[in-house]
Amino acid sequence: MSCKHYKNSPQKYYKIISFATFVGLLYACSTTKKVPDGEYLLTKNNFEFEDKREFFDDELKDYVQQKPNKKQLLFMPLGLAFYNMANPKYDTILNEYMTYPGEMRNQKLRDSLFLKYNMKSSVGKSLLFDRLLHNWGTPPVILDQGRTEKSAESIKKRLIYRGFWDADVKFKNKLDSASKKATVDYLIRHNDPTYIKDYYFNIPDQGIKQIYNNHIDKTLVRAGQILDQTALEKEVTRITDLMKESGYYRFNSTNDEIYFVADSLKNKKQVPLTLEIHKDSLDRPYKKATFGNIDVAIVDEASDYPKNTVKDSLRRIRFHKMNDKYKLSSLWRAIIVDNKQLFDQQKLDVTKRNLMTMNNFSIVKARDSLRQGGMTTPNDSIVDVLYVLKPLPKYELKVGTDLNYSQILNLGISPSVDLTTRNVFRGAENLSTSLSGTFGSIRSTGDIDKRVLAYELSAQASLNFPRLLLPFNYYKFIPKRYTPTSSILLGASIQNNIGLGRLNFNTGLNYQANVNEQVYHKLTLFNTQISLTKNKNAYYDYFFNDGLVRDEMFSKYFAYDPTIETKYRSGQISMDQLSQTIIEDNTYRGTLNQQGLDLLTTFRGSLINKERQTQDVLISSMIYNFVYNEIGKKEYPNAFYFNGKVELAGNILSLFNKRSNDGGVVMGPQKTIFGIPYAQFVKFDIDTRKYFKFNGNQTLVLRQFIGVGIPYGNSDDMPIIKSYFNGGSNDIRAWVAFGGLGPADSQVDERVRTYMTNDIKLTTNIEYRIPFTSMYEGALFTDIGNTWSLRNHNDAHQDQFRFNKFLGQMGIGSGFGLRVNVAYITFRLDFAYKIYDPNKAEGDRWRIKNIQPFKPTLNIAFGYPF
To answer: Would you say which domain of life the source belongs to (predicted)?
Structure first.
């Protein structure tokens, strides 16, 4: 910040400095306001490790019984500040007042407390402001030295649990009588851990033993490992789940059938470990169970079953219903468990998932139990299953409004109305219809200092089926446990935002299947899109810079051939005819110097951009999408994510009769359907991400995106709505979307290059996330990438992808960010700077010396970028 800038607006900075000073004084003076004399406010717990740190050490802070008041706004315990702002003379009354149930808290209760504490002058006061501060606030955490000692003991126990039997934990209280504040230092020494010398297992039941041996390669406990009790716990869970999936009902239900025995008599550093699995002290054998009766009831109220229902059945599933609103076949598809099959806990879990995925029922009761035999004891080998389902309302209406921000649309508002109609054809089909709009403003292409209205209105209808819409039985190759579903989509939208507006129509048939919680397949058949460009003749009104290039090129050519200007002015030749004459005039090209050739190249690039932006296109494609996702799963702390998609378009349309249009200035004739050119291409998208957790909650994220679109047949280029561009808050953040990065290292005038899209995209993102508190998180990032074409555009611009050049054509941006987590929403601010710009001239591409710290590329978004 320069002194000149400060002198020009001193009042602004005076207010900022004054406010910061006020907040600082408030923080410094108020935190101990209600700390009694002789007591100390706990401000921090410090952990000092006297030897090498271990990977789990960050969890030790959870075993401290006293933690300082939580801080908000990065540095200030706001809850404590609120508490201290309340009038201290009412603290005792308000503390007792809040112990009463909410319905009893009224003026009568407050008056009785005033009288109880001899505060008659306060009778009748509502204390509204003090009550609000008291409710919002949190009292100061007063140091309890006895709890500090217990905390040290808890930390030591946790270290022993983790396998460090000789760990030593000491503590030191640092008291500041002047400020009435205290910190606690925990001094931790791990010392050498205890290892598993040999690993044995004792499993008398031969059936259990065989299953364990068959899966021993997946064991989490091995000789040579540290004797970590958390690993033993995970192994117990693994074995329990394995046996429940292998027919053993309620295996280890009391958590005492699996345990480990460590022999530490001879050596406490190298300990033999034995896994023990016993049904009881008599070592009675385990017995495999099978599913018995499978009952599914559909009722209006839980009490309707069984007295108000009628029994029916389908393929060994017994249904109990009050009416015929639902076809039995639609419910049968969701039920994975089957009569006389071997018991499998996973089938019960998947059945629940299927029922919830249908979005037609709430599960009132889901019960599995051993069959009762009248007066006899339960049968220990037959498991009866019952599901009691209550239909959700037939209609569900949702009205919402979202605020969003993008670097193209600026701050926008998105109202929406969604209506869900359930069980349309009695087969649990749901019809979802929605009307939505997005309204905002964009920078005018004619005057960058002005903003104009931008909007998009859309209507969508989706009919969702809890099955695959196929004319044959598919369960042999797509089992019910994959939760197969189908949907038919129909939609239309009209938009008027970037440059020319568009009318879009889309329809498609989608098939989905979830193999498990990580793997997802989606196949889209007959995905059809029609994109029609509005106001084609107004192209140069929207793309003002292209118009400047056109006018300059026409002026130069008129000077070369004055006769053609007369023909153009009189209307004998059109603008497109004149443009074609210029780019095909090789004699004129031979008269140009380097500056003229650059202008001609830029002009040709603008014509390519014009024809792609104004092109109507029909896209009929088939899309296959595969997703593997470990994100959000506790068992995958270092999660991996893969999203692969392939799209094949235009082959079916090419079989129909068609006519060809006349093409454009630079685009050749194309075959059409109903007068609209259809696109032919194959497109591959791969998005991979890897997350590394370390030092507690710190995260390193690596992301690689590879996109390739290959036009062929009727298409020389990818349709603009299927092409790739650079920039934006989830991409290369140092450039705004359509912000001038790419294609390749093209030197075409940025005025034309800005809205170019291309066939190939490579993007690498590296982000390091550092949590400050549970609410605030910082990030450091670097983004690398660009777009390319599969071919050169006849000297319009050099953007072809070449293996020996592409690394030097990657744009690089770096920066830092702040994330604010409120409830389930993450607000994100990213400040990015251009490090390497391949579209600058040679020798000027490294931009580090040009970085202006106070003028970053600002990205405002919701949610993580990846």
So the answer is: Bacteria
Q: Count the neighbouring beta carbons within 10 Å of the beta carbon of residue 849.
A: 6
Tell me if residue 643 falls in helix, strand or coil.
strand
Domain count across the chain: 6
How far apart are the C-alpha atoms of 811 and 814, rounded to whole Å?
Answer: 10
Strand pairing category for 519-533 and 617-629:
antiparallel
Residue 355 in this model has a pLDDT that exceeds 70: yes
384 and 474, same domain (yes or no) = no
- The answer to whether the beta carbons of residues 582 and 588 sit under 8 Å apart is yes
Q: Give 197-239 pLDDT, tens digit per residue.
A: 999 999 999 999 999 999 999 999 999 999 999 999 999 999 9
Residues 6+ apart with CB under 8 A from 298: 309, 319, 320, 321, 322, 325, 326, 331, 361, 389, 390, 391
Could you tell me the residue range of the domain that residue 827 belongs to? 724-865
Q: Do residues 71 and 178 both lie within one domain?
A: yes
Domain boundary among 391, 414, 430: 391
Cβ–Cβ contacts within 10 Å for residue 106, how many?
11
* Whether 172 and 36 share a structural domain: yes
Average pLDDT (261-289) is 91
How confident is the model at residue 501, as a pLDDT?
77
For 164, 521, 585, 684, 705, the CA distances from 644, given in Å and listed in that order, are 44, 10, 46, 8, 10
Q: Is the four-CA dihedral 725, 726, 728, 730 of positive or negative sign?
A: positive
The tens digit of pLDDT for each residue in 767-820 reads 999 887 777 889 999 999 999 988 765 555 678 888 888 999 999 999 999 998
* Residue of 244 and 5 predicted with greater confidence: 244
Q: Where do runs of H (alpha helix) occur along 245-344?
A: 328-332
**Residue 150 and residue 74 in one domain:** yes
| Inter-CA distances, 726 with 78, 495, 497, 545, Å | 41, 21, 18, 20
Asked if 758 and 746 touch (Cβ cutoff 8 Å), the reply is no
- How many CA atoms lie within 13 Å of 415's alpha carbon, on the beta-carbon side? 2
Mean of pLDDT over the chain: 86
Q: Is the pLDDT of residue 20 over 50?
A: no
For residue 103, tell me if it sits in a domain: no
| pLDDT category of residue 6 using cuts at 50, 70 and 90 | very low
Q: Which of 245, 277, 309 is the last residue of a domain?
A: 277
- Give 93: exposed, middle or buried? Use CB within 10 Å, 0-12, 13-18, 19+: buried
